Amino acid sequence: MSNKAGSVSDLFIIGGGINGCGIARDAVGRGLSVTLAEMGDLAQATSSASTKLFHGGLRYLEFFEFRLVREALEERETLLEAMPHISWPMRFVLPYSPDMRFESDTPTSRLLGVAMPWMRGRRPAWLIRLGLFLYDNLGGRKILPGTRRLDLVADPLGQPLRPGFRLGWEYSDCWVQDARLVVLNARDAEARGARVLTRTRVTRAERAEGMWQISTEGPEGPRSFQARALVNASGPWVEDVVRNVAHISTSEGVRLVRGSHIVVPRLYDHDRCYFFQGTDGRIIFAIPFEQEFTLIGTTDMDHKGPPGEARCTNEERDYLCAFASRYFAAAVTPDQVVWTYSGVRPLYNDGAKSATAATRDYVLSLNEDGAPLLNVFGGKITTYRRLAESAMAKLVPHFPQAGSAWTARVPLPGGDFPVEGVAELSARIARTYPFLAPAEVQRLLRTHGTETFEILGEAQSREELGRDFGAGLSEAEVRWFQSREYARTAEDIVWRRTKLGLKMTDEQIDGLARWLADQAADAAE
């Protein structure tokens, strides 16, 4: 194939995860020209393998990460207002047990060991309540309700738990559909003028004549691009891109930490989540998931090997089952697990002793030895928008024409309705499409928001939506994923644009894959 030349962009972004797509959206909205290249599908790695929470990081208070926690807490409600379809408030139950322990190397543990040596390693109830007080007040909370004390013997929220848990607290955080968050940021960036290239690998980037000269390999074959600045937001591959694509020596690197999750059939009937603290100092969540399941995670393990090969090991699965079983009255066993997933967090390598202690804060490193190169290390999904603003603050001196920050509370596609308007929107979808079951209405709302009406159009029956691929996935929705959301494969659709892979049979997923292949073959003719 011939080498096709692309136009000059202000920014060329490597990486189609949440940081890359968030920066692309922010930059193009300021008037800069942007090209983004992702070697696979959007959110194919870390950004679709999170615990799917917008949260301040209650545990990070033990490490005195106050700035990070405050920024994340402030962001929860800012993000909630921009995407009330794919993010929503959740209440978390934190049971207390005298057996709770700190990790011995946290700053809080060391301080308590000096001030109160008889409490060494323990998490006293007053300290947890102090942490929750800070959690309620650090971030200027306005929408989310505050913490309340629970009597787990009398309260129904204690019923799923083993006998012996008497005291607990209930506090607020938010859920988010992580992979959809990435796709909607990419779509909004493209609608504002960005060029989004999926399944396009950057093979080389070098400085020449005051610009970045970039080579890619994608569906159209080899191509070349020019950019005034390069943003390396490639997540777990950030160090590899610096060294082997841009060929720049650096002392900075990432610590790859694997976080694994398991999914089991629903363990309880209410809509609350549980925050469990272990005797090893770790914590896990148990979260209602996709209507019929419970999500349990996460682990923190140093990851060796290629980031794309991260898998939940049998040891991690068993660890999560045993951890949850110390709290739930009914044991969680490996044979209950219906799905696992694992992602690699690219944490900035700060030399911490353990994976759990490694900083969750992000680091933005600007190399100005010629055309600017911004490398993005670390970050968490909750602070992606603030990270993008911080990235632009680093780059704006090179682009004096760039506008000011603008993304706070600006709706993502489908999110143009108030946080308190979910019930009204649900009722409107149900009235417009009475052939949908209540669970289908809920899924479509939580996937597409107000765009549900654009997808389903004037349909008066299921038949008018085209082929039924199973679990409520219609041809109309699949065509939307293809034409508007960069989806190409069955995996893209059933595990990232949705989580319907949990409810579809292997035969149904194979049928979708064959249909997509036929569509691609017809388009190529």
From TrEMBL:
<dbReference type="InterPro" id="IPR006076">
    <property type="entry name" value="FAD-dep_OxRdtase"/>
</dbReference>
<dbReference type="Pfam" id="PF01266">
    <property type="entry name" value="DAO"/>
</dbReference>
<keyword id="KW-0274">FAD</keyword>
<dbReference type="GO" id="GO:0004368">
    <property type="term" value="F:glycerol-3-phosphate dehydrogenase (quinone) activity"/>
</dbReference>
<feature type="domain" description="Alpha-glycerophosphate oxidase C-terminal">
    <location>
        <begin position="407"/>
        <end position="508"/>
    </location>
</feature>
<keyword id="KW-0560">Oxidoreductase</keyword>
<protein>
    <recommendedName>
        <fullName>Glycerol-3-phosphate dehydrogenase</fullName>
        <ecNumber>1.1.5.3</ecNumber>
    </recommendedName>
</protein>
<feature type="domain" description="FAD dependent oxidoreductase">
    <location>
        <begin position="10"/>
        <end position="385"/>
    </location>
</feature>
<dbReference type="InterPro" id="IPR036188">
    <property type="entry name" value="FAD/NAD-bd_sf"/>
</dbReference>
<dbReference type="Pfam" id="PF16901">
    <property type="entry name" value="DAO_C"/>
</dbReference>
<dbReference type="InterPro" id="IPR038299">
    <property type="entry name" value="DAO_C_sf"/>
</dbReference>
<dbReference type="InterPro" id="IPR031656">
    <property type="entry name" value="DAO_C"/>
</dbReference>
<keyword id="KW-0285">Flavoprotein</keyword>
<dbReference type="InterPro" id="IPR000447">
    <property type="entry name" value="G3P_DH_FAD-dep"/>
</dbReference>
<comment type="similarity">
    <text>Belongs to the FAD-dependent glycerol-3-phosphate dehydrogenase family.</text>
</comment>
